[in-house]
Amino acid sequence: MVPTDTNIGRGSIGGFVLIPSLIGQAAGERALRILNGESAATIPIHLGNFVRPVFDWRQMQRWGISESNLPMGSEIRFRDMTAWEQYRKQVVVVLVAILGQAALISWLLYERRRRRVAEATTRRTLSDLSRVNRMATASELSASIAHELSQPLTGIVSNANAGIRWLTATTSNLGRVEATLKQIVAAGHHAGEVITSMRALFKRSTEERLPLQINELIDKAILLERRDIQSHRVSLTLERNEWLPDILRDRVRLLQVILNLIRNAIEAMDSDRTRTLRIKSELDKSGGVLVSVEDSGSGIDQQNLARIFDPLFTTKPQGLGIGLAICRSIIESHDGCLWATSKIGKGSTFFIKLPRYKAADGWQQVEKRA
Questions:
Q1: What is the mean pLDDT of the segment spanning 217-221?
Q2: Per-residue pLDDT averaged across 115-124, rounded?
Q3: Can you give the pTM of this predicted structure?
Q4: Distance CA 291, CA 280 (A)
Q5: How many CA atoms lie less than 13 Å away from 260 in the CB half-sphere?
Q6: Which residue of 141, 187, 289, 303 could cross-link 152, Cys pair, CB 3.0 to 4.6 Å?
Q7: Across residues 141-168, what is the average pLDDT?
Q8: Contact status, residue 298 vs residue 345, Cβ threshold 8 Å
Q9: Residue 41: exposed, middle, or buried by beta-carbon count in 10 A (0-12, 13-18, 19+)?
């Protein structure tokens, strides 16, 4: 034990000790009262309690003394502050920041999941709309299909009758019969191609992609749209680069895009204007394929031009606003891009850019667009 608290911290545990500072404080208060003019005789004698239980925390730790065994109101000196006591504010700020970041990350993950679900739903919707659009296109092309089929079928019947006459003639002409049969075979193949194209438009796309020359699709689209081109008195100009590289494609879906662009171009040209449709295929600067479909219509306002690829936006009175949105989705799924330029009174031009197909080391590869 030690008599005063001034000895605490010099090796003793502590105990009930005299606090000199309390004595000095009480004496100072009375001295001030006297200096302020108060008579010393009137100041009552007061026996203060200047003894307090004071202990050295370091010695308590050394001897294994628990705080619960100390007297009530004990003062513990030289206590090592815990990290919480030393850095309480900093810890609170860090915890708040961590919780805030955790909440933000959780919200971002939730929004990311919602976006993925929305994108998947949009892709499914566009796929279904694409099929509906193909069916509508096929329905509109039915007259053209009938017209295209009537020609080879008429040729088949005529050539077959001619072949029968030459075979039943007194002197058979086998050379003419052979030529006639070849014409029948060619007409049959042509009719089969027309029917295959018609059936493909009704089927759900299987996403099968094989190397293809874009000019083949352009020819097929013109074949299917020939009747409309003629009935609307449209002058067709076709500029083809015959040395274009192959592209990796889904034939049906890319054919659908070109058909849509051609039909839109035909519908965009007024009856009182010179109707000119210009389709061009060329080599892009990046080594890919660039196709342009240009009309001589009235053009598209610049404000509308920025929105024509948005779903459900249309400038046609009877339009649904899904055709161009589907076209862009199809082209982008082929790692390409679709865009348009237009001038009021001078028509519009739609561009399709597709990467070239490359075969390297036995694997099919596609150059990504720049």
A1: 88
A2: 83
A3: 0.50
A4: 6
A5: 30
A6: 187
A7: 69
A8: yes
A9: exposed
Predicted local distance difference test score (pLDDT) of residue 357: 80
Residue 324 has pLDDT above 60, yes or no: yes
Q: For residue 232, give the nearest of 143, 171, 321 by alpha carbon.
A: 143
Largest Cα–Cα separation, the chain: 168
SS3 at position 240: strand
CB–CB of 266/224 below 8 Å? no
Of 30, 50, 52, 53, residue with least CA distance to 41? 30
Q: Which residue in the block uniquely carries the two structure tokens 């849509």? A: 260
Average pLDDT, the chain: 79
Residue length, the chain? 370
H or E, element range at 62: helix 57-63
- The reported pLDDT for the residue numbered 238 is 93
Looking at 75-233, list the stretches that DSSP marks H as alpha helix, in order from N- to C-terminal side: 83-86, 88-140, 142-168, 174-202, 214-231
Which CATH number applies to 206-370?
A: 3.30.565.10
Which residue do the tokens 């001030």 mark?
32
Whole-angstrom distance, CA of residue 364 vs CA of residue 210: 9
* β-pair partners for 337: 353
By C-alpha distance, which of 248, 250, 249, 258 is closest to 224? 258
Evaluate whether 215 touches 250 at the Cβ level (below 8 Å).
no
